């Protein structure tokens, strides 16, 4: 297999470039010192599909939102929305 390289090309011209990272360590980007016993400010996706119990879905979303999480419902098949934020989805009318 030619790995997408031309047959008559020099393979060395297509090798990956090894480069040192610009930042070796960053406390600002590290998750090591984050609060671990809270969902506050966490972004949480709830995956929902046809047949999901809308009452349970709303209860979970409500409790997580109340605790400070940012919750988004994601569903694979909906008539008018993929990443569901519409009021019909939140009310459970589309599930």
Automatic annotation (TrEMBL):
Protein name: Catalase
Gene3D superfamilies for this protein: 3.40.50.880
Organism: Chitinophaga sancti
Domain of life: Bacteria
Matching InterPro entries: Class_I_gatase-like (IPR029062)
